[in-house]
Design brief:
Chain lengths: 367, 195
Amino acid sequence: MLAHILSDIAAASAISSVLAIALVVARKYLNSYGDCRIRINDKRDLVVKGGNSLLSSLSEKGIFLASACGGRGSCGACKCKIDHGGGPLLPTEKPLLSVQEQKDNIRLACQIKVKMDMQIALPEAVFNIRKYKAQVIEITDLTYDIKSVTFQLLDPGEIDFKAGQYVQLETKPYARIKQTTMRAYSIASRPEDRDQIELIIRLVPEGICTTWVHKYLQVGEQVNMTGPYGDFYIRDSKADMIFIAGGSGKAPIKSMLEHLKVTGTDRHMVYFFGARTEKDLYLTDLFKSYEQVFPDFQYIPVLSRCDDGAEWCAKTGYIMPYIKEVLRDSRNTEAYMCGSPGMLEACKKELLALDVPNDRIYFDSFS
Amino acid sequence: MTISPVVLFWAAIFTSNILLSNFLGMCSYLSVSRELESSLGLGVAVVFVLTLTCALNWLVYYYLLIPMNIIYLQYIIFIIVIAATVQLMELVIERYTPALYYTLGIFLPLITVNCAIFGVALFMVIRKYSFIQTIAYAAGSGLGWLLAILMLAAIRIRIREKAIPAGLRGAGISLIVTGIMALAFLGFSGIVTVQ
């Protein structure tokens, strides 16, 4: 009887194994596309092994496109222009590309498999993006749900970024989360400190990365990050500046102001910070002190709810109504905003209504 | 009396349509029938996969399972054969005919779990079909399924803008439409009956 059962199991396993082996062999021979040449911006050539996604093929060669979802085709951050060798548009890409982008050959690098020689175009700034090994040297509570984390860069030991840009932090597996993920955070420290960066991270309920940072990350731990990314940085002009931030959106603005402190500026600057209640305010003394550092700077916290006797009750509600009061010459004003998509959308609408040029409104959305 | 493969082929399309008379393969039938183009792609993929896997399963059943006396494991083995074949097909199509891959290949993973494929494999065993009969029956069933999903897609496009009660939109009205289609197909049953 036992022999019977064993031989049946062996037979079934044998059939399955033959099929499995056939699949493995087929994958090895059919899924290999030999060496493929990727020509970037008509001057750089990469030779990669075909069969993998363009995103991972590029990152293997040290070129890191932004990717918040880790290649699942849900964030649309890894857009790049593919002039040749991308194949037809896939149903998985369509929802994330606008009609104009589809016309311009913009594709999602994570969805495209390298099968032949390709021609792609990338912005020059991408070549400045590197993978960094860094060590946590300080974690500070800024509010009950926002932490500041400072990293010492180990390898490479220095980063070259513009104030306002962001890095992507790689989480490690913890508790029920089995995979590593990448999440984008703006750099809060100034670009002059090239060997250290500070991130400001707010705990999002159920957030994979923020939970890891708040509950698991310890001083001394080593992590990986890539960067710098983004086109949110100060434009060199004489125009007035309005900064608007909400929640942990203070990070890029802090980097910008600290950078301006080093270079010096006499531009007219107003900084609105939107928070729910007084306990959501942080770094208030620092930003208030900047009113003495710069000749023409004002820091205005706006609380949506003000408890009795709180200190910052001068301005409450939404930020929008207060923008008009500080605007001097709207055509000659730049706006720098970082925060939740809803807040940004409302503020942008107000700025446009007040005649601030659309191409002078810069923002970094948390979406 | 053995049934001619030609008769089986036509019967599988019209009188004993795998979807409209056995109600197998409903999930992808309901979920992919929004557009004609994707319905056609999925339907053609079903025809190919069904014919190929049934032929393979017939060989596996009569040349491996019966001699080894492990017929009671047929469910597991059939599913493994189907899953492996679909994956192989996907690899081959992607490699050699990229154009086909973009129109048809992306549907292949959906088909692995299509119960029509498995149902036809079981029918061929229960009804003791020969190899030729199996191929005819499988190809016919695939075409029948293709016909059904194309009809549903065409009807869904026509009723898209109509005033359908909110609770019946989507799967609800599709099931009613399918029921009426099945009734209409009953009209064919006088021609030939296959059991």
